[in-house]
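Sequence only, no structure available. Ideas?
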Amino acid sequence: MTLSLHFRTPILRASFAILLLSSAAVRADDIDQLPVTATFVISGGFWEGDGGEIESAPDVAGSGTATPVPTQPVAPQAGAKTEPQRGYYKLVAIRQPDRTAKIYLQQIQSAESGPKVLESVELEEFSAIKAYVTDIRPEDSTGVSRQPGLFATVYLKTDPQQMEPEGWTVLIDEFGDIRVERETN
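Reply:
I predicted one. Tokens follow.
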């Protein structure tokens, strides 16, 4: 006995609805991992490397966990060709209890299994001036970088009553050197 088309359609609709709802729950869990104190997050630029040893990434989100240091580097098999690592950068502003922000630079590896944080560093230049961050913008919003590195502008105030924000640049060159400077016009 075969099911009539009338009966199959509601079953298919219900199955499709369940599938959509279950995938929405997974996406909702992903966004719940983002700390509520993250006020600005941008990603951009790119880097390539030889896959050297990875150090522990500090806990940016404040969850008390850090990315573990690998116990032993995995040696490539004899004759195996190692692919260079590739990835991009992220700038994250985390609001502090006094309303200032700490800004972290993250190096993200684009891996087959998904993105992986290789390193997170606090940009002390911003912490030292007690920055009230009002915006962070990448140099290019097309999503395509033509040169290795990163260029982004952080807009901030050193006094919350200040009318106009100051622009500060974060520059990572093709060698991975980081510069943080106040913009000059």
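The first strand starts at residue 38 and ends at 49.
Hope that gets you unstuck.
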